[in-house]
Amino acid sequence: xxxxxxxxxxxxxxxxxxxxxxxxxxxxxxxxxxxxxxxxxxxxxxxxxxxxxxxxxxxxxxxxxxxxxxxxxxxxxxxxxxxxxxxxxxxxxxxxxxxxxxxxxxxxxxxxxxxxxxxxxxxxxxxxxxxxxxxxxxxxxxxxxxxxxxxxxxxxxxxxxxxxxxxxxxxxxxxxxxxxxxxxxxxxxxxxxxxxxxxxxxxxxxxxxxxxxxxxxxxxxxxxxxxxxxxxxxxxxxxxxxxxxxxxxxxxxxxxxxxxxxxxxxxxxxxxxxxxxxxxxxxx
Length: 284
Ligand code: PLP
What we know:
The protein is an alpha+beta fold. It contains 8 helices and 16 strands.
């Protein structure tokens, strides 16, 4: 079956899904996006993703292109038209098309694109059972990565650097030696005493929706949690490490740079959080 994408009011075959060359997302990364997990045909945590989208649009003064209800209809329609059970739905909103010039153009309509992609759940589960290896890289991103913009070049280079070195992902480290987050996920460690540590949300990380749901899981399990920056050295000595994102949920990290984390296998806390996640996520 051919894939269907939504572009500015129309549902189109994938090959016809196009925006203009002077789209400001294309030229300046002047665009925001969201990625929502689809599970058994249902959107997971749609409400929180749409809340974050509203914040991102507001931060860039991009006017909402349509009502929240209309956007929700489009997201569900794209999932339905692609007959997708498991995967994710991607939504991108750019400031619009205008003559190439830095200032906000007057009177342009935002461009809205929605695509859906099926994912092989068995493969992701196999990866989670094995855990992933990660390298650390300097965090050279701009100062507002809390806004979910499509300006992801440092993330692209970090992920490629990881793959080139035989690892699966990269953790960004700030100038003080603290881990900020992963290339497309939030970073967590479990200390020797069982306490979970993840960086507090500020302008230096994206406030992950999965991160927020994992907080609920952690509290329900009676685990202790601390939101603060953690250093690379602390991470090397951690009992467990993992990352969280809408596409990977809770993914155990078993090696960081040259150091095995814990016994080099996915830890019991990460594994339990992964198993419990969808009981706490909306729509799960
Ligand atoms: N941090 C970054 C840089 C990301 O790109 C993502 C997701 O794409 C996340 C964190 C996790 O966010 P979420 O849990 O909402 O998917």
